[in-house]
């Protein structure tokens, strides 16, 4: 496998307490990879290193073989909270990242508009975030992330705050849209089913300090629909991951 993203031997401590320990993982071009791990294990810290918000104590990150320290800004990051600005209209929230990067508002709108239909936001451009449902807010946050045209998408628990049914709908939607756009994605989730449904591969992190304890190839045919849950291979992988997580927490 040629790696789009390579993380090698990452270590990071806070006040002498190790949070990441010799952490290594890979994501290939167009691959959807998830990270599962106990709460407080160091998943968000890993993303902070990738976005450049934190420096690792040691180790390296490469995108297309180039060190991140030499070519920053390769990741588009969607945080756990949608961070939509309540006073800006939906369209102005969607263009915000592009405008901050220096693009004119008009040009930014031209870039965002073709995506509105796919993201289920057509007709809501002039609404304010408070008028959107939870699922729509998350799709808006995701649209704002993907439109930045970065090489790797980092999604930190994007559906964590949604009710179970909306969450399932969002997973089905993301699977369809991913099939069309072939993004390279690294997703943090606590939801084992979500990880199996969406991913090509799933990494399991240990409790803090985070290190990789298992990497599972999902291998179920794509595009996946609700029928995937009934596939015995789905249940087997889900059980295997759950068992590893529970063993690790003992
Ligand atoms: N800036 C910081 N200073 C000190 N400790 C920190 C800092 N950031 C994170 N930590 C600690 O590092 C550990 C890992 O945190 P992190 O947020 O990466 O975990 P996580 O796996 O993303 O958790 P969750 O699943 O609950 O979101 C935690 O124990 C946290 O308290």
TrEMBL record:
CDD domains: ABC_NrtD_SsuB_transporters (cd03293)
Domain ABC transporter: 5-232
Record GO terms (molecular function): ATP binding; ATP hydrolysis activity
Top-level taxon of origin: Bacteria
SMART domains xrefs: AAA (SM00382)
Entry-linked InterPro entries: AAA+_ATPase, ABC_transporter-like_ATP-bd, ABC_transporter-like_CS, ABC_transporter_ATP-bind, P-loop_NTPase
Protein keywords: ATP-binding, Nucleotide-binding, Transport
Signal found in the keyword field: no
Protein name, entry field: ABC-type nitrate/sulfonate/bicarbonate transport system ATPase subunit
């Amino acid at each position: 496998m040629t790696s789009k993203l390579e993380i090698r031997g990452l270590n990071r401590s806070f006040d002498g307490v190790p949070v990441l320990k010799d952490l290594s993982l890979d994501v290939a071009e167009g691959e959807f990879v998830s990270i599962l791990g106990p709460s407080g294990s160091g998943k968000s810290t890993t993303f902070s290193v990738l976005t450049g918000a934190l420096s690792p104590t040691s180790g390296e990150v490469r995108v297309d073989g180039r060190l991140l320290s030499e070519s920053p800004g390769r990741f588009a990051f969607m945080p756990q909270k949608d961070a939509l600005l309540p006073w800006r209209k939906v369209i102005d929230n969607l263009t915000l990242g592009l405008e901050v990067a220096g693009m004119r508002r008009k040009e930014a709108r031209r870039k965002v508009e073709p995506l509105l239909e796919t993201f289920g936001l057509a007709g809501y451009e002039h609404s304010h975030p408070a008028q959107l449902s939870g699922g729509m807010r998350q799709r808006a946050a995701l649209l704002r992330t993907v439109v930045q045209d970065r090489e790797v998408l980092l999604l930190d628990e994007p559906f964590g705050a949604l009710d179970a049914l909306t969450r399932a709908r969002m997973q089905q939607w993301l699977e369809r849209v991913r099939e069309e756009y072939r993004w390279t994605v690294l997703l943090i989730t606590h939801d084992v089913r979500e990880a199996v449904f969406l991913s090509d591969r799933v990494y399991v992190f240990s409790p803090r300090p985070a290190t990789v304890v298992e990497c599972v190839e999902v291998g179920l045919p794509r595009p996946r629909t609700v029928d995937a849950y009934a596939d015995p291979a789905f249940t087997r992988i889900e059980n295997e991951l759950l068992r590893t997580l529970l063993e690790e927490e003992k």
